[in-house]
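Quick one, T. Sequence first:
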Amino acid sequence: MTTDKNYLLVSREGFVATVTLNRPALHNAWHPQMGLDLEVIVRQLGEDESVRVVVITGAGSSFCSGLDMQYIKDVREGRVPPVPERAPSDDDMNQRYSYLMGIPKPVICALNGPAVGIGLVLALFCDFRYAAASARVSTMFSRRGLIPEHGMPWLLQHLIGLPRAMELMMMGQWVTATEAERIGLVNAVFPDELFQQEVAQRAQALATEVSPRSARIIKRLTYEACTSTLGDAVRAFYQELPSALSSEDFREGVQHFIEKRPARFTGR
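Structure tokens:
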């Protein structure tokens, strides 16, 4: 499956679907149409019971070099019409990119190369971030006379803490993959030559060794806890516990452990 202009490519391997930003000649510069198409594709994958994990990565040597400046220039000079804006929402999990946090399955960002500006924003809204050793990231907004967009100040505080988030956004400097891992911005860094293999292994483990039902609920409860109290989080656990104990995946989780065999989770 591809978009009309091949801005995005989708491939499947077992329970894992990979969406690839596909403008390698432009270092996957972000065209607004990509955002609209990505949401349609990811929501479809979120509803597809044959998909348990979604991976987002970039074609070529970059993840995303930020907003397509040529598009901005063309719009300003009247050569092309602007891409229509996505409808606004009051729902925290239904903003322009936060819908990724609301997708009921794990979303992995595979940072195969540099991620700048909106490219980093996209990565932050994913549940996991793995980086190739040569990858690096930057907010860059302050160095262009702009400000961090789409909720980045909220996201970065939760991910790496206030002082580091402030420095990253205000300084706008490049951060290496090693440094990004040290401060908790990415989960792990892998050698370039092993990157795709390592990410694929972790995606397959999530898809086959983890209950899809558990993953779905853990993701929802974790993001809800970001804006709730400890008491709310405890009550949410007790609300979910009875259905978890009566689920097929719980029975399978016990049975495969007793029988010492690979799990065969169904998500039910």
